[in-house]
Design goal:
By secondary structure, the protein is mostly helical. It has helices spanning 2-32, 50-57, 59-92, 97-109, 112-123, 129-136, 153-177, 182-190, 195-206, 208-223, 227-232, 244-253, 258-287; strands at residues 35-36, 45-46. The two termini are 38 Å apart.
Length: 288
């Protein structure tokens, strides 16, 4: 009896933390989504589903949904695959594995402001590395404004995000690769399998748990992508990089409309729940 009580006692702090910082904000956002409130005054007006109606009539919001879906379709797949390939290449290196891992992980711990300055220099239309490289290929008049052109801004921001977080995925993959015995590869080599076939028949199946974890984390991360966009473009130009997270932030803190921000937050929460649920369902179905 005492042991059961002690177990409950030890879980109380975690339960309190969970309720205060997860359950309560979600319930509060759902509640505020039915009110007109500026976030400061003591009075709020119940408006029912009016905030949701206004959101879906807002062309900017519809653009944010499109941009968010583009991020979700491109970001997680590209980042997970790139991290997997790099992790395999690093694991095959005879020397310097720790150095390579540290180099690729460095963007994760690098302050975002410092990283943004680096990428502003890379994307600079006049003296940027990227444009100068294209000019070296023979396109002398090439002068692309990567972050200032609505056609390329979102892609440019995604490149920064992928560069920043791929190292995190690499570490997870390398931990999984260390658990794969070399005997599998030696047996495959005896059977005449090349490296490409060994990769698809041995590495990928045995790394399935790591792939699932990385892809799920990346999926959720790109659904709520905020910091990179806010530091580099703040949703511009012409809302071409506006996503749900930046839209919510602006509604709450620039336009002082907590009701609209809460309604958008509920929609973001539902999107994360749906995408995560479908993904986990497909994974569990495949494992069965």
């Amino acid at each position: 009896m005492f042991s059961k009580i002690s177990y409950v006692f030890y879980t109380v702090p975690a339960l309190i933390f969970y309720v205060l910082f997860l359950v309560y904000p979600i319930v509060s956002a759902f509640n505020y989504s039915f009110y007109k409130w500026d976030g400061v005054s003591a009075e709020s007006t119940f408006v029912g589903l009016l905030n949701y109606r206004y959101i879906f009539e807002d062309k900017v919001f519809l653009q944010t949904i499109k941009n968010t879906l583009v991020c979700v379709l491109i970001g997680p797949i590209t980042q997970t695959f790139l991290a997997l390939v790099l992790a395999v290449l690093i694991s095959k290196a005879l020397k310097g594995k720790a150095l390579y891992r540290a180099i690729f992980y460095m963007p994760v711990i690098l302050p975002l402001v410092a990283a943004s300055i680096v990428w502003f220099s890379i994307y600079n239309p006049t003296f940027g590395v990227l444009n100068n490289f294209v000019r070296l290929l023979g396109f002398q008049d090439f002068n692309q404004v990567w972050l200032g052109d609505p056609k390329t801004a979102l892609l440019a921001v995604l490149v920064i995000s992928i560069w920043r977080w791929t190292g995190f995925n690499i570490v997870i993959f390398m931990a999984g690769l260390q658990d794969i015995s070399n005997e599998y590869y030696e047996a495959a080599q005896i059977d005449g399998a090349n490296q490409w076939k060994s990769f698809w028949k041995i590495t990928v199946p045995l790394l399935a748990p790591s792939i699932v974890i990385n892809f799920a984390l990346n999926l959720i991360g790109y659904l709520k992508l905020f910091d990179v966009i806010y530091v580099t473009t703040q949703g511009g130009p012409a809302n071409s990089t506006e996503v749900l997270s930046t839209y919510i932030y602006k509604q709450a803190f620039q336009y002082n409309d907590v009701g609209m921000a809460s309604a958008a937050s509920v929609i973001l929460f539902l999107l994360i729940a749906v995408f995560s649920g479908v993904y986990l369902f497909l994974i569990s179905r495949k494992s069965d």
